[in-house]
Amino acid sequence: MFIDTHCHLDAAEFGIAQADVVRNAAAAGVDRLVVPSVDCHNFEAVRKLCEQYPNCAPAYGIHPMYTDDATPNDIEVLREYLKQHPAAAIGEIGLDFFIPHYDQARQEHFFVEQLKLARDFDLPVLLHIRRAQDSILKHLRQIKVRGGIAHAFNGSRQQADEFIKLGFKLGFGGAMTYSRATRLRELAATLPLDSIVLETDAPDIPPDFLERGAPNEPKYLPRIAQTLAELRGLSLEEVKQATTENALAVLPKLKSLVISA
Q1: CA angle, corner 197, sides to 63 and 156, nearest 5?
Q2: In the chain, what are the domains?
Q3: 55-96, pLDDT tens digit by residue?
Q4: Residues 53, 25: Cα–Cα separation, whole Å
Q5: In contact, 7 and 33? CB cutoff 8 Å
Q6: Please, what is the Cα angle at 45 between 42 and 48, to 5 degrees?
Q7: pLDDT digits (tens, 9 = 90+) for 3-51
Q8: Residue 25's closest CA among 37, 33, 34?
């Protein structure tokens, strides 16, 4: 089986067609989906979807692009939610210094507080990182968590090695399928295979083979995996087995969902 380690199943682009998305993914061999939240207002939507579709696992967190509207009480809301509802990870959390007029101090406050929750609940984290690799690493060195996934990784090899040292896997998806993404493809080809997990970020980050404007879906993960196989000179089966094992290692609560490998 394949595991999509990052899929926003509750996104508006899917409308009420989530059942089709999950069904089509399973038909393509993508049997497990990790569904991260972005703020307190969609915790319930994510939870209900994951209860409705047992091959989906939730993650709860406050995305850096939503911190402008977050309140200090939201951290307590997240804490209580984690007490009451099982989660595969805390996420999607992180730092985004790419968006216009970002408030770095505010983003870092919510990131740090959520890292503390990850430490307290012994949960991995799903990291959103744009132009903030070194800042993220600084905080991870200060607040030790059990690792997680650097989602849509696009840093340097040196930064990749630092994340790996801290117990993180690196998420690769549709961006890797573009021939012009030379640095990213070089990383995908040369990083230790046991450091890589696959993701779609559906409905975002569409792969090169999709028609322009079409939403990304987890059913495309095997075709994305084929790109990784070609870049590394491996069979698709080898990539599937390795990335599945990697996802289960870094997100151990997914193992309770596994019916067959």
Answers
A1: 75
A2: 2-257 (3.20.20.140)
A3: 999 999 999 999 999 998 999 999 999 999 999 999 999 999
A4: 12
A5: yes
A6: 145
A7: 999 999 999 999 999 999 999 999 999 999 999 999 999 999 999 999 9
A8: 33
Interatomic CA distance for residues 169 and 227, integer angstroms: 18
Place of tokens 């200060």: 142
Q: What is the DSSP letter of 64?
A: G
Contact at 8 Å (CB) between 219 and 27? yes
pTM for this prediction: 0.96
Measured CA to CA, the distance from residue 229 to residue 127 in angstroms comes to 24
How many Cα atoms occupy the beta-carbon half-sphere of 245 within 13 Å? Answer: 9
Instruction: Kindly report whether the peptide bond that precedes residue 51 is cis, defined as omega within 30 degrees of 0.
Output: no
Q: Which residue has the tokens 């790419």?
A: 98
Rounded to whole angstroms, how far apart are CA atoms 67 and 92?
Answer: 12
pLDDT digits (tens, 9 = 90+) for 170-218: 999 999 999 999 999 999 999 999 999 999 999 999 999 999 999 999 9
Q: Are 130 and 97 in contact (CB under 8 A)?
A: yes
Q: Could you give the CA distance from residue 80 to residue 118 in angstroms, rounded to a whole number?
A: 13
Closest CA to 239 of 225, 252, 227: 225
Are the beta carbons of 41 and 32 closer than 8 angstroms?
Answer: no
pLDDT tens-digit map of 124-157? 999 999 999 999 999 999 999 999 999 999 999 9
Contact status, residue 163 vs residue 150, Cβ threshold 8 Å: yes
